[in-house]
Amino acid sequence: MARGDAPQDSYHLVGISFFILGLGTLLPWNFFITAIPYFQGRLAGANNTAGTLGTNHTGPADTFNFNNWVTLLSQLPLLLFTLLNSFLYQCIPETVRILGSLLAILLLFALTAVLVKVDMSPGPFFSITMASVWFINSFCAVLQGSLFGQLGTMPSTYSTLFLSGQGLAGIFAALAMLTAMASGVDAQTSALGYFVTPCVGIFTSIVCYLSLPHLEFARYYLAKKPLQAQGQELETKAELLQSDEKNSIPNSPQKVALTLDLDAEKEPELEPEEIQKPGKPSVFIVFQKIWLTALCLVLVFAVTLSVFPAITAMVTSSTSPGKWSQFFNPICCFLLFNIMDWVGRSLTSYFLWPDEDSRLLPLLVCLRVLFVPLFMLCHVPERSRLPVLFPQDAYFITFMLLFAVSNGYLMSLTMCLAPRCCHMRGRWLAP
Predict the structure, then answer these.
(1) Tens digit of pLDDT for each residue in 319-366?
(2) CA gap 251, 220 in Å, rounded
(3) In sequence order, what are the beta bridge partners of 424?
(4) How far is residue 208 from each of residues 47, 99, 100, 204, 205, measured CA to CA in Å?
(5) So where are the chain's domains?
(6) Is the pTM of this model over 0.85?
(7) Which residues in 100-117 are b (16+ Cβ under 10 Å) and which e?
(8) Structural contact between residues 222 and 212, judged by C-beta atoms closer than 8 angstroms
(9) What is the CATH number of domain 9-223?
(10) Environment class of residue 31 by beta-carbon count within 10 Å: exposed (0-12), middle (13-18) or buried (19+)?
(11) Angstrom distance (rounded) from CA 267 to CA 261
């Protein structure tokens, strides 16, 4: 919601642009992990030139430990370059970082699409794919950090649109996989069409970003000075809080954050030991307040990434070969996870339970560790070291439902509660 004298977002073009940009930031990761069966097929030598989408391959492909490597080489650069981005913004212009990252991701995905048609032995194909995964996720980290910096000057509703686009990226990738599999064309053509799809999505993101300077609403906010932005943000928050009250949305994350922000302007001064110089908050004091919530968030991500997709992508249907067996992994692993994860995130718009002082939150987070052995004991063929205790498909589907909803809800919940932990006597410890 904009201030009265601010220009209007005509036809919601700026909101749509940030939604598409959010979609584009997570498309690379989701398209790679959803296509794990394709990469396994190539590494196993299936059809020499193209693996089969949606069909798990075991045996020779296991010698590359593809699932483990793709998880490591995607998350490690995300961490490193997210930290590095804190220094890059001082020496590299924002436009260069965003456009450069988008163009680099587009070229790397175009290379992945071209390799579908190239006859290559498993070894070089594995090396090129892992290098692509590393660089794509490095550029994604820079891209996300830069876009979040821009969103800091926009009304908070645009951050919500951006995050919604990110949340739908996984669903989009799973649907693209199912469409390619159901197209009825040969494996090579369907794989080519699958990898061309994110290229189109990233190209659309580039067009959306280039259009922002030509939109008056975007120019008004993105060109504002920090002090103007702060005053605008407070006014915007007051209007959003009134809107939440009119719509009777109890304890929404937005309402909690907005109330605390507005209260911060009215509360008495802090104790001497809590006084911080403007713009230079003590990270140590902030960490003292949020360490438990931050640890819960780390554990949520750690459990999720330890099994998804490295273990869950190996689970197959216990039914006889057929259509259901072919579509089992794309539907029950990737599509189901992304839909239920989005549902879990959405639940925090209606209630926040348990609160930041409850011991139940760390308990619920720790209980998610049980998903690791549960998924490992599901139906994974040609495995000799572990027994299959849950062979039926219903077990895996039930585990995935609970796993995905808990991931989305607990991740969103901890991110909503962290600002409340920083609140001391009605004031923020950080600006």
Answers:
(1) 888 889 888 988 999 999 999 998 888 888 788 888 877 789 999 999
(2) 31
(3) 427
(4) 38, 11, 14, 6, 5
(5) 9-223, 228-266, 267-431
(6) no
(7) bbbebbbebbbbbbebbe
(8) yes
(9) 1.20.1250.20
(10) buried
(11) 11
